[in-house]
Amino acid sequence: MIVIIGSGMAGLACARALAEAGLSHVVLDKGRCIGGRVATRRVGDLQFDHGAQFVNAHGASFAAALGRLSVADWQDGMGRTHSVGVPGMSAIPRALGEGLDIRQGVQVTRLQQDGDGWLVQAEGASLRAARVVVTVPAPQVAGLLGAQHPLVAELAPVRLAPCLTLMAAVRAPAPFITRQDPDDPLSWIAQDSTKPGRPQGAATQWVAQAGEAFSVEHLEKTPEEIAALMLPLLCERMGATPDLVTYAAAHRWRYARVTQALGQPFLSSPDGSLFLGGDWCIGPRVEAAWTSGTAIADAVLAQS
User: Fold this and answer.
1) How many CA atoms lie within 13 A of 267 on its CB side?
2) Statement: the pTM of the whole predicted model exceeds 0.85
3) What is the pLDDT of residue 55?
4) For residue 207, which of 37, 92, 52, 70 has the smallest C-alpha distance?
5) Which fold has domain 2-39+90-157+261-303?
C-alpha cells in the first residue's frame, strides 16, 4: 500500500499515475475538497476561482494531461490565452481524481518508520504503508516527520509566501477583464465572470489577490477583517462605489506562493520508502505541482 498525503495537484498526479500502473494507493487529505489551491468557491448562484486563476502548459507532458481534463481557453484581456477549468477551476482536480481512492477529512498527525514501511497516524485511526508520499506545503513537513528528520533539513532553502484573496460580486460596469500590478496591494484582479462556463447574473463576479507585502502584513486578521480592508481597494480600482457590492468574502492562503523553490522535482529517503513533493520543489505554477507528483510516481514505479 502506498499512502499519499495531500490531495492537491501533486498528490493527485502521483495517485493517477500509480493507479494507471495498477499500484494500490490511498490519498489522505484534511480538507473537504480535493485540489488544494486549484479551487472554486460557490455561494448560491455565485462562484469564484479563489485560488489558482488559470493553468498554462510549458511542457508536452502536462499539455497532454490538460487535454484529458475539463479545460477551455480564456482570454485575459491583456493579449494572453490561458487554460481554465470548466465550469470552475475545481473541475481540473475533480477530473484528475476521478476513480481514485481519496479520503477527505483525514488529518494525518504523525509519520513513523516501522520496519520496512511506515505507520501513518491520523486522528482516530492509523494505516501501515510500504511507501509514503507527502505533498503538503514544505513548512508543514516537520510536523509530520519531526524536526530532526534528515529530509527536513534539506527543505531549509524553500520559501513560501501567503496570499489573501477577495471574492466580490459588484453591480457595476466592468472596466477591465484582468489587472496585474506587482507593486499594487491588489497585485491581481480578474473578472471571473468572463471565464467560459461561469454563471452570469446582474452582478459581475471578481477575484482580487493581494501582493506579498499586504498578505504578510494582514495574514492573521480574520476573513471578515481582510474583506473589509480589500474591498475598498477593489472598488477604487474599478471606479465603483461600495453600495454596488452585493457579496464580499475573503480567504487566506497561508502557503500560496513559491518564492524560492527547492530546485529538483522531489526529495526521497535513502531507502526509497518516503517521498516529499509539491510545487515548492520546482516553482509557482500548477504545472510544477503536477510535474513533481508525476516524477515521484515514476520513481516509485522504477522501484517496482
Assistant:
1) 23
2) yes
3) 97
4) 52
5) FAD/NAD(P)-binding domain (3.50.50)
The residues that bridge with 166 in the sheet, in sequence order, are: 208, 250
Measured at the alpha carbon of residue 74, what is the angle toward residues 48 and 135, in degrees to the nearest 5? 60
Residues 124, 106 contacting (CB under 8 angstroms): no
The confidence score (pLDDT) of residue 123 equals: 86
Handedness of CA 61, 54, 105, 44 (dihedral sign): negative
Instruction: Give the list of residues 6+ apart from residue 174 with CB closer than 8 angstroms, or none.
Output: 191, 193, 204, 238
159-258 to CATH, choices 3.90.79.10, 3.90.660.10, 3.20.20.140, 3.40.50.720: 3.90.660.10
From-to residues of CATH 3.90.660.10 in the chain: 159-258
Q: What is the pLDDT of residue 116?
A: 87
- State the 10-residue block means of pLDDT for the chain, 304 residues long: 97 98 96 96 97 97 94 97 98 97 96 94 91 98 97 98 98 97 98 96 96 98 98 98 98 97 98 97 97 98 91
Please state, in angstroms and rounded to a whole number, the distance separating the CA atoms of residues 137 and 150. 17
The three grid cell numbers given for residue 28, joined into one nine-digit string: 489522505
Which residues neighbour 20 within 8 Å (Cβ) at sequence distance 6 or greater? none
- C-beta of residue 270 within 8 angstroms of C-beta of residue 206: no
| pLDDT of 1 | 93
